[in-house]
Structure formats: C-alpha cells, structure tokens
C-alpha cells in the first residue's frame, strides 16, 4: 500500500488523484466524481484489495509523446464497465495517457501478432519506405502461419512489405522487414526491445518480430496501449493500420485484405490497429477509435470474444467519460515525438 497518495502527487506538482472502484474485480477508473487529473509524470497508485482479490493498480503515465491534456472524468451517471472475457484488458485516453479502465493490465502476457505494432514502428523509424527489398523468405514452408505469400526472389518495397505484415498479418513479410532493416532477426529484435526501453515500457520483452509463441515473449495490456499511442504519431502508421485493402505491386502483384476490416467498419470512429492469435496467447486485439476529437485505445489479451468485447469497452468509454478541454489528436502533433516515418 502506498501511503498519503495526495501528498506524493502534490510533491510532483499534480492535483490529487481520486480513485473509484467500480463493480467487479480489477476495474478501476481515473476520477471520483468530477476530479480532473493533470498528468505530468509516471505515477503508480495502489489500492487496497477488493474482497479476497489482490491489490489492484491504476497507472497514469506520460511516455513519449508526453500528455498534453487533463484526464477525462467519469460522469456521475455512468454505467459500470461492461464485463469481458479477456485475461487482461485496458482502455487508455490518448491526450492524457490516463487509464480509464483496467483488468490485469500490468500482467506480462503473450501478445501474438499485435507484436507487429513494435515491428512497424522500428521499421518506420529506421527504414526507407521506398527501399526495394529482395525477399529470402519462403511462405510455402510456413505452415500454420498467416502470410503475405512471399517466395524467395520476390522484390517489393518496404512500404508494400509493411502492408503485407499489418493487413493479412504476414509472418513472412515480418521476417523480410526485420532482415532488411535490422540486418538479422536478432539485431532487429534488439531494436524492438530498445524501443520499449526508450518509451519507458518495462512490462514487455520481445524475442521475435512476429509474435509467434516463444518463452519470455510477453507484454502487458497497458504497455501495448502506450505503444499503440506512440505508433499513431507516425502518419504512415495511421494510414497503414486504417487501410482495408491494398495491392502490393512489386515483382508481382499480391492483393491484401486487413484482417480487422470488420471492426473498422462496425465500430464508430475505429481507425486501426491490429489483432493476433496463437494457441498460447489466445485472441488478442488493439483498437484505436476517435470521436469528437478524442481518441481512445482499447486492448484485449486472450479474449475469445475480442471483437465484441473491445467494441463494448470503447462504447462505454466514450459514453461514460467527459473531457474538460478539447483534445488535439496526435496526428495534428506528430512533432511531439520527433523522428520520421520515411
């Protein structure tokens, strides 16, 4: 238990943080009544156990890019958050980086193909989208994997390979990207873990660039939401994850379809990002949605009903919170992060 939380926050120059526990174990929101929170530094607050459950934690953090708005506050007439079937879940406000809902959000878990959010970011930071890549990966021997359909000798731009990785979740395209940008799978994974360190995301560790089962390849729902928040500062990433179909036009043409196109069409304001599945990880998903100038990120890990649960959580978030000030979306402030996307 962390004692005298208001005193700790005051020492950082922030307002007092009020925490309200809603019905259900592990469901916490920022704000109690109408108490805005100004986020100026990473803060971790522990709350005593509910019944016999272990202590729950709500985190307000400001990784890159820093928070630029106060946290939204829970409406007094808000309904309880919807029940979901996820092993871990989180709902994050973009402007404040505040957690609006969490459920085992700090537990490092296998993420499956949502790993590719980090892969795309490293490629955008370090690669040139117009580079031509000669492929040495053979999708025909990758039985059981989702693939773009590459064969050795294919030539595509790095841009096309990114679409082949993110839309159909091509593990073949992922390996081609890693080897082109990093020089080797291992070197590229080092860059992915360096990205986590740079963003202050201490609840994750990657072993490969695609997210297939591997010991110690894990990340928390909270860190995934913050990673997605950073990824969306790249204009090309926003375009990439919000695209429903694409034709990779290299040495041959390969039509590609986004596996989360259904969510993009059915959830109001949804504009990406990624889903994944392995037997160990279960069904995973990260979705961004924007309404009235405010963006929320929802994450579900190991959830058999990920699409319906993530849609319900986003709907609850937009309906249950109110924002004190207008928000500038990250696409209007890409300079906050620096760097480039090629």
Describe the structure in your own words.
The protein is α+β, with helices and mostly antiparallel strands. The protein has two domains: 5-106 and 277-331, no CATH class; 112-259, Beta-lactamase. Helix content is 27%, strand content 23%. The chain contains nine helices and 17 strands. The protein has a five-stranded antiparallel beta sheet with strand order 7-6-16-15-14, sandwiched between helices. The chain has a two-stranded antiparallel sheet with strand order 1-2. Strands 3-4 form a two-stranded antiparallel sheet. Helix 2 (116-126) crosses helix 5 (185-198). 51% of the residues are buried. The model is unreliable at 1-63 and 331-342 (pLDDT under 50).
- Total discrete domains: 2
Class by SSE composition = alpha+beta
Query: How far from one another are the termini?
Result: 46 Å
Profile the largest sheet: 5 strands, antiparallel
């Amino acid at each position: 238990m962390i004692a005298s939380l208001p005193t700790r926050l005051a020492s950082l120059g922030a307002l007092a943080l009020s925490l309200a526990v809603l019905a259900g174990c592990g469901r916490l929101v920022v704000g109690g009544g109408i108490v805005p929170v100004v986020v100026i530094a990473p803060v971790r607050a522990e709350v005593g156990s509910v019944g016999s459950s272990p202590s729950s934690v709500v985190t307000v953090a400001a990784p890159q890019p820093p928070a630029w708005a106060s946290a939204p506050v829970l409406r007094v007439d808000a309904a309880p958050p919807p029940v979901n079937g996820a092993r871990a879940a989180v709902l994050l406000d973009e402007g404040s980086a505040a957690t609006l809902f969490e459920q085992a959000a700090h537990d490092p878990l296998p993420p499956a193909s949502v790993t590719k959010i980090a892969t795309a970011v490293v490629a955008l930071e370090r690669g040139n989208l117009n580079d031509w890549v000669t492929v040495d990966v053979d999708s025909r021997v990758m039985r059981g994997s989702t693939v773009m359909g590459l064969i050795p000798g294919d030539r595509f731009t790095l841009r096309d390979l990114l679409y082949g990785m993110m839309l159909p979740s091509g593990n073949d395209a992922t390996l081609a990207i890693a080897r082109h940008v990093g020089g080797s799978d291992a070197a590229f994974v080092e860059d992915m873990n360096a990205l986590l360190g740079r963003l202050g995301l201490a609840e994750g560790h990657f072993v490969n660039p695609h997210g297939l089962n591997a010991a110690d390849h894990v990340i928390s729902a909270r860190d995934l939401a913050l990673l997605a928040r950073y990824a969306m500062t790249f204009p090309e990433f926003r375009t990439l994850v919000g695209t429903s179909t694409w034709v990779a036009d290299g040495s041959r043409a390969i039509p590609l379809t986004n596996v989360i196109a259904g969510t993009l069409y059915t959830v109001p304001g949804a504009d990406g990002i990624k889903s994944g599945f392995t037997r160990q990880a279960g069904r995973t998903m990260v979705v961004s949605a924007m309404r009235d100038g405010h963006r929320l990120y929802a994450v579900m890990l190991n959830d058999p009903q990920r699409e319906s649960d993530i849609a319900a959580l986003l709907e609850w978030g937009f309906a249950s919170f109110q924002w004190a000030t207008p928000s500038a979306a990250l696409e209007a402030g890409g300079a906050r992060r620096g760097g480039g996307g090629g």
